[in-house]
Structure formats: structure tokens, C-alpha cells
Amino acid sequence: MKFFVDTAIAEEIRELNDYGLLDGVTTNPSLIAKSGRDFKEVVAEICAIVDGPVSAEVAATDFDGMMVEARILSALAANVVVKLPLTLDGLKACRALSTEGIHTNVTLCFSANQALLAAKAGASYISPFIGRLDDINLDGMALIHEIRAIYDNYGFETEILAASIRSANHVKEAALAGADVATIPPAVIRGLAQHPLTDKGLDQFIKDWTSTGQSIR
Ligand code: E4P
């Protein structure tokens, strides 16, 4: 499973990229607002840090407006993926951009039928929002399973990008469900490496090693 980081904070992206853990980045208007940065400037900076796809979302909600913004965003860097909302106009823009060879990420997906439409529109990625479904007492992970089954039934190549991930357990469950990608907040990515028994075991190994008085160097 590929790991994208879900943030527009360039410093955090740089740090995780240095660990070799990143395959790409997703941003959204809320994350851009949180960064306090100029949208196009920060997207260009992120695209220079990470080799993989960087999702940048249009702000327009009508087809013509989305197409204008999509062209501006995709001109920022070769690895920009244009993020479009899962609306009829968004799907129309997805089809037009996909036909031109521009990569797309259809976002705000909350149902299997929406995901089916995005695949039919030629989306490169579909973003089902797990956490936001869990927030309203629905089963976000069940949606990933449904989309996986439908895409496999018909051989759709749209990649399932599990989004709105809130916990390490979400990452594990999305991997088990066959999501192609998970976009994960930075703190959750760092938390994946943590286990109390790892810390305890390492403390003991260091203590025992020190007692030998040896040095590897
Ligand atoms: C990513 O593409 C989504 O915009 C993001 O994962 C949404 O996460 P949230 O529901 O935690 O805001």
C-alpha cells in the first residue's frame, strides 16, 4: 500500500520524506487554510520535495471554473494531481481531464455508487472518507471493502485512496481491505512505528550491550 501524507505543511512533508516513507501528498482547502500559505506557492514547494503525486484541489464548483483552475494547478508541476469534488460537474471535469491525460483525484466520496461513477469518469484516484463516515456512526471501512469488490469485478484501474484516516487502526484496516493508497496525517504516520514492547526491548538491549563494555566501531 502506498502512503501519502495528508497535510500542506512543507516542513512535515520534508521530514517524513527524509525517512523514505512517502509516496505522495494530499492537500485540501482546509489544510491549505491551516498552513497559512499561498496555495500555488505551497503546492509548487511540496511538488519539489516529493517525487510522487501531490493532490491540489480546485475551489470552483462549476465545470468551466473547475477546468480553468485544473489547468492552472496542473501547470504548477508535473506531479500535480487535480482534486475534484464528487459532484456531477466534478465528474464531468474528471472525464475531460482524464481524456487529456491529466491525473485526477475525486474527493468527498461517501458511497460505493459515487466511487463507481468516479471510476467510469476515468479518475486516477477515488478518495472515500473513512473517518467522516465513522463520525456519523456509519462504517467507513465497509465502504473501502465495497469499492474494492466493485473495482475488482470490472477491472477498473482507479486507485482506492483511503482518506480521512484518523488512527493507526484505520491504516491497518485499509491495508487489509485492499486500499491501494492511504493518505495519513503526519502524527498517525509517526505513530505507526511505535510499540511499547519495542521501546522496552530496545532499552533492555542497550542496557545489556553497555554492560559488555564493547564497541562495534
Ligand atoms: C484527503 O484527501 C482528505 O481531504 C482528508 O483525508 C480529509 O480528512 P479529514 O476528514 O480528517 O478532514
Number of helices: 11
CATH class: Alpha Beta
Q: Main beta sheet, described?
A: 8 strands, parallel, barrel
What form results from the Cα inertia axes?
globular
Low-pLDDT stretches: none
Helix content: 40-55%
Beta-strand content estimate? 15-25%
CATH homologous superfamily placement: Aldolase class I
Mean pLDDT: 98
How are the strands of the biggest sheet laid out side by side? 1-2-3-4-5-6-7-8
- Give helix and strand order, one letter per element, not per position: EHEHHEHEHEHEHHEHEHH
How many angstroms does the end-to-end distance come to? Answer: 37 Å
| Small molecules held by this entry | erythose-4-phosphate
Task: State the CATH architecture.
Answer: Alpha-Beta Barrel
Q: Structural class, from helix and strand content? A: alpha/beta
> Total domains, how many?
1
Q: Tally of extended strands?
A: 8
What's the SSE blueprint?
Elements (H helix, E strand, L loop, with lengths): L1 E5 L3 H9 L5 E3 L2 H7 L3 H11 L4 E4 L5 H12 L5 E6 L2 H12 L4 E6 L2 H9 L4 E4 L1 H6 L4 H15 L4 E4 L5 H9 L4 E4 L1 H7 L3 H17 L5
Parallel strand pairs: 1-2, 1-8, 2-3, 3-4, 4-5, 5-6, 6-7, 7-8
Helix pairs in contact: 1-3, 4-5, 6-8
The site of erythose-4-phosphate (E4P) has 11 residues, from helix 7.
